[in-house]
Fold:
Amino acid sequence: MTIELCYKPIAGRSRYEDLIKRRCYKPAGHTGKCEEFPYLAHLKQVAPRVEAKIKRDATKTTGAAWKSDDAGPNRIDRWVMLLPDDELHSRFGINIAAMKPQVQAKLREKAATYEDCMEVAAKLALNVYQMRNAPPAPPEILQYLEARFDAFRPNSTRCIVCRDHLDFKLFENAQRGRAHIETAHANPRMHNPDNVGFAHRECNIAQGSLSLQDFYDWIRSIVARVDAHLS
Structure:
């Protein structure tokens, strides 16, 4: 089953609005007003912090909690970071050259097109509904997400790092600046629906800047050395 989307242009209020063509992601021929995130309407009612997290993690970079030239911008649209350094500086006053090298690399690694960000948001919504103890998705949202991705599989969402099941209730345990579930990437340098999922905070920290394959190889080498030492 596939679905044809509306894709009519809609207005936005970002200072970077001229970089993208913001679109409606409702089914083609829908009634009512166009919407960019129609599949998040239910989560916005029952779990607004989860809904906000999906939008934020899908479309924004991370960054320092403070503003300074060397720390870099906090929570900037991912597609902005696709621009070359000189254009970022001349158009938006973002001086990449003044930032610490690790900040520059991190921002560039998180760059993604608007279209990929929107695909990621919808895929994360499906992953949320497939968690243990997740609120039941309304039939129309479930059908929409299944048509865009795969058949709905309840209780199937796992941490992409340790592969253990994830429980929706972990979202409720989040404290300021410290989530128990984080959005994670199998390859930290790719932001698309095939590479993005959720992970335990500890697992995401442990993976760091490594790809999952490199991380697993590193863990195996540690275990092998420990086993050899203890034998």
